[in-house]
Design brief:
Blueprint (H helix, E strand, L loop, with lengths): L4 E9 L2 E10 L2 E10 L9 E10 L3 H14 L10 E3 L1
Antiparallel strand pairs: 1-2, 1-5, 2-3, 3-4
Length: about 90
């Protein structure tokens, strides 16, 4: 079993970030997009929450289509807040 690989993260707030990880589970690979948080006394370490989704890598093209459609649909809408991506 391979260790999870961090692909991308978005800083949501000083205490929260969204992480994109490629993980292996039962000999299959998944993209896990999940909210992680840093407790007040966490010493700088982040922990995963239940808020997220895991999708099989084979479904990534369909996920991309859905995100692209959402971007087209919402292109004219005002953004609440710009996220700060961290690579």
């Amino acid at each position: 079993m391979q260790e999870p690989r961090l692909v991308y993260r978005i800083q949501k707030s000083p205490e929260e970030e969204i992480r994109f990880l490629v993980k292996e589970y039962r000999e299959r690979f998944y993209l896990d997009i999940r909210l992680w948080f840093q407790p007040a006394n966490g010493g700088g370490e982040y922990f995963p929450t239940k808020k997220g989704i895991s999708v099989a890598l084979g479904t990534l093209p369909e996920l991309k289509k859905g995100v692209e459609r959402a971007m087209k649909l919402t292109a004219e809408m005002p953004l609440q807040k710009q996220a700060n991506p961290v690579e």
